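May I ask you for just one protein sequence along with its backbone structure tokens in two labelled lines?

_____
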Amino acid sequence: MIGRPLRRAALSSLAICAAALHGSACRAEPAFVKAHGYEFQLEGRPFHVAGVNNHYLTFGSQNEVTRVLDDAAAMGANVVRTFLQPVIGSKDGLVRTIWDFKSRAETSNLGVNGNYLLYWDSQNRRMAVNEEANGVAKFDFLVAEASKRGLRLIVCFLDFWDYTGGVQQIRAWYGSDDKKAFFFEDSRTKADYRKWVRYVIERTNPLTGRRYRDDPTIFGWELANEPDDPPKDLRASWIAEMSSYVKSLDPNHLVASGLSNVTDKLSDISIPTIDYSAWHGYPLFYDLSVDEFDDQIREFCAIARKAGKPALLEEFGYARSNPNYVEAYQKWLKTIQDDPDCAGWLVWRLVSRQDSGAFPVDEHDQFDVHNDGGALWRTLRAAAEKFRATP
């Protein structure tokens, strides 16, 4: 006998099938990814995350966005992580934009092409959402296109860093120079953050007809990208408060903090309203050898197992100028593949051809991954295929 919840689900599926007329195929509605112990699950089966990060999906051209999604699918990724950005000052210039909004660089190098999601309304003296084609419609397009390709999205509500405004632009609206604590403790910025979160979660995407809280294309929400800098107690209280708020609006999706979580070793994992933890691992930034970083992967996954929550290696990269860089990726990916305590990985960062037709120059960190058929691309594609197929 079908119990009541299952009966409702079955009737819903029948209704969807009945609507598929003239012989068109009937497809079940996708489900939400859930946390179950120290692994992710989709409809009761393990969901191993093999994914990529990309930073320009809410300000690139439509062609640039679809190239990234196509490349992610070609790599065999199942999750793409990105940020909701840019954030600017006021459109009339009375409240300055603290970053180079008018840069003419290529998109990957933060030429945002006049696109922005949030701004300061100087007439009404409050935060405002850009609902024009160069605003939240960019996010609508991203989600609709990801859904077409069967990709899930990890979405950070904001970026902590000021590369395209983020948290730092919001504290600048109020005249503060405090880059560490102000945003997380001031009543006005906290109210702005809540308003933005509610707007996103309750927005209906006109391209799909779904509210974001009801769209399984979203793998999970992250409070911000790398909000690590506030004092520990303030950081922990803000994460607890805001993750609880997100869950009050959206019980369907996973919620994470977005912390880089390296020096404090998954410090958010004990917060009840955080569903999974993650860390951003870069041997270059923490002066680790290839083997030492491999040990870190095992250590952090063991912490997650003990806590009973999943943990993702959510960002990692290794400069291609290192002669052993392909072998390093192979080693780390195999460790995650072989360790049942590890829930998945997302490489930093997948960058596709720009509208110029070329891959952008990345001579600083040299972490960019391209669909160029090279050894690293083949390594990531093979690892994604194998990890996703793990029982």
User: Anything to note?
Assistant: The two ends are 29 Å apart (CA to CA). Residues 42-388 form a domain with the TIM Barrel fold (CATH 3.20.20.80). The chain has one domain: 42-388. Confidence is low (pLDDT under 50) at residues 1-25.
